[in-house]
Amino acid sequence: MWKKTAKGDEEIRSRTFGLPQNLRHVLILIDGMSDEEKILQKGSALPDDVKSCIQELAREEYIITAARVLTIADVKNELIRIARETLGPDAETVIEKIKEAPDDKEGLVATMSRCRKLVKMIIDEEKAENLIRQCTAVLNELM
């Protein structure tokens, strides 16, 4: 997914940088919500190679890749999925703790640290380490 930078927004607003028309057409297609395939479809009627225009716009810093934006609910759902997958029928206590966790990154990190200790004591040290490794990767995606 691509989104305009401040430079890209400025170019659309006022043509400050004198972007060639072919690149400007593609820049207009960048909306921050469409993936590259969708942008290529939208630009299929344009005379230029849209993919190379996207690459040029990125090189010149008119656009950047848009990071995936996760909500706390998304993260909690992913943590629950990981717990089920990693712990199987022993996951219910961990799942309840995730559901009850505070709705911020720090609260989720603290909850998962406690869950790691719990799994290590009650179930298995290897499963605890596997759980925390996967959950940490998900938590690191939160801004």
Helices and strands in order:
Layout: E1 2-4, H1 6-14, H2 21-29, H3 36-42, H4 50-59, E2 63-65, H5 72-87, H6 92-100, H7 105-122, H8 125-139
Antiparallel strand pairs: 1-2
Helix pairs in contact: 2-4, 5-6, 5-8, 7-8
What does this structure look like?
There is one protein chain. This protein has 143 residues and is mainly alpha-helical. The protein contains eight helices and two strands. 65% of the residues lie in helices and 4% in strands. It has a two-stranded antiparallel ribbon. The mean pLDDT is 89.
The computed structural class is: mainly alpha
Which strand-content bin applies to the residues?
Answer: under 5%
Main sheet specs? 2 strands, antiparallel
- Roughly how much helix do the residues carry, as a percent range? 55-70%
Spatially, the strands of the biggest sheet line up as 1-2
Mean pLDDT: 89
Query: What general form does the structure show?
Result: elongated
Terminal Cα separation, in Å?
Answer: 17 Å
Poorly predicted residue ranges: none
How many domains? Answer: 2
Tally of contiguous helical segments = 8
The total beta strand count reads: 2
Radius of gyration from CA coordinates: 22 Å
- Order of helices and strands, N to C? EHHHHEHHHH
